[in-house]
């Protein structure tokens, strides 16, 4: 493997060590950790010297590197290394020219897959990365639907570090309909963005299912180094397979839902399916009928209601009735 690729692995491994507040990494620990990281990635044994680690640390500290706040702390006759700023991580920093060149190369490689159905996200991702990292001068010709005013966006880096380091968190949370904060002990698994909001998913103490918490409602959190971390045994793909959005009602199974769509709306739904399970079961000159296999949750009902009279739930009866009741409630607000 090329040296520069080894360097990226080393920098990322060092970043994980230096941002881990639950453990002290001495030079011998760094050597072992980085050697293992390279082996895990390449499948080959790697020999890492003390000199190489010190060179990497110097580079990460430098203006030409990442300007990382790496500090050394004496403990007896030994020295351990850690970021002096606990919120710092490489993932949240601007990239340097070397990284920009590597990112351009990676985007060029991804570009070869454009046009294949399973890679339809690549063009949008490429444009976002080029815009975000100023790889090309895109000016104001392309705009992305982002909410830069969302509260607690600054928590993303810290939460990501805790997830990568598999650290249990004590977290305080205040929902929109509560006056007091609620405290959780959560084993964080991943972050997901939906509808311009970020959500933290994990396993809360005392619950059998995953919990999702919007970042803008989190008030504070700390790592609990004395609480054993419960690893994730499921995959996000499995969890979201039958969902629209992020909320998953407890003990509710997915259902086959048939929806009749006005022909004027159908081109929009056809080009942007409501869910990956969407399939056409009937088509006339006036309407197209589709079927979804989903759990009817808050986001499902919100999306359906958003289309107004251009769309009608045909079955099952319980879902149709739920939509009808919501429409009656709305009607009552305006017509008494």
The largest β sheet comes out as: 5 strands, antiparallel
Q: Spell out the helices and strands N to C.
A: HEHHEEHHHEEEEEHEHEEHEH
Gyration radius (Cα, Å) is 25 Å
* Strand elements, count: 12
**What number is the mean pLDDT?**
84
- The number of helical elements comes to 10
How is this fold's topology laid out?
Elements: H1 3-18, E1 25-26, H2 27-42, H3 50-61, E2 70-75, E3 78-83, H4 97-111, H5 122-132, H6 155-164, E4 169-173, E5 182-194, E6 197-204, E7 210-214, E8 218-223, H7 236-240, E9 255-262, H8 266-271, E10 279-283, E11 287-294, H9 298-306, E12 311-315, H10 317-334
Helix pairs in contact: 1-2, 1-3, 4-5
Describe the structure concisely.
This protein has 336 residues and is α+β, with helices and mostly antiparallel strands.
């Amino acid at each position: 493997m090329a040296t520069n690729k080894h360097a990226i692995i080393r920098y990322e491994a060092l970043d994980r060590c230096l941002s881990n507040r639950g453990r002290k990494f001495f030079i011998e620990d760094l050597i072992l950790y980085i050697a293992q990281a390279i082996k895990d990635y390449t499948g080959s044994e790697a020999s890492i010297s003390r000199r190489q680690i010190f060179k990497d640390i110097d580079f990460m500290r430098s203006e030409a590197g990442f300007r990382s706040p790496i500090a050394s702390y004496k403990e007896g006759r030994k020295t351990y290394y850690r970021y002096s700023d606990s919120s710092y991580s490489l993932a949240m920093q601007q990239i340097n020219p070397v990284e920009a060149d590597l990112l351009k190369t990676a985007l060029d490689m991804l570009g070869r897959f454009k046009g294949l159905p399973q890679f339809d996200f690549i063009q949008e991702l490429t444009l976002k990365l080029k815009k975000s990292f100023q790889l090309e001068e895109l000016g104001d010709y392309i705009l992305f639907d982002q909410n830069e005013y969302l509260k607690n966006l600054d928590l993303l880096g810290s939460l990501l570090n805790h997830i990568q380091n598999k650290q249990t968190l004590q977290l305080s949370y205040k929902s929109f309909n509560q006056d007091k904060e609620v405290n959780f002990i959560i084993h964080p698994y991943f972050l997901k963005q939906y509808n311009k909001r970020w959500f933290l998913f994990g396993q809360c103490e005392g619950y059998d299912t995953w919990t999702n918490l919007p970042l803008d409602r989190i008030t504070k959190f700390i790592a609990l180094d004395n609480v054993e971390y419960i690893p994730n045994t499921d995959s996000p793909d499995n969890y979201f397979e039958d969902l629209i959005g992020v909320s998953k009602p407890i003990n509710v199974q997915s259902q086959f839902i048939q929806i009749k769509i006005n022909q004027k709306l159908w081109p929009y739904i056809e080009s942007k399916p409501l869910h990956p399970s969407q399939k056409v079961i009937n088509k006339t000159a006036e309407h197209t009928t589709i079927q979804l296999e989903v759990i009817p949750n808050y986001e499902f009902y919100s999306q359906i209601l958003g289309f107004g009279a251009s769309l009608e739930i045909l079955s099952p009866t319980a879902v149709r009735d739920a939509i009808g009741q919501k429409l009656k409630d709305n009607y009552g607000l305006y017509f008494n």
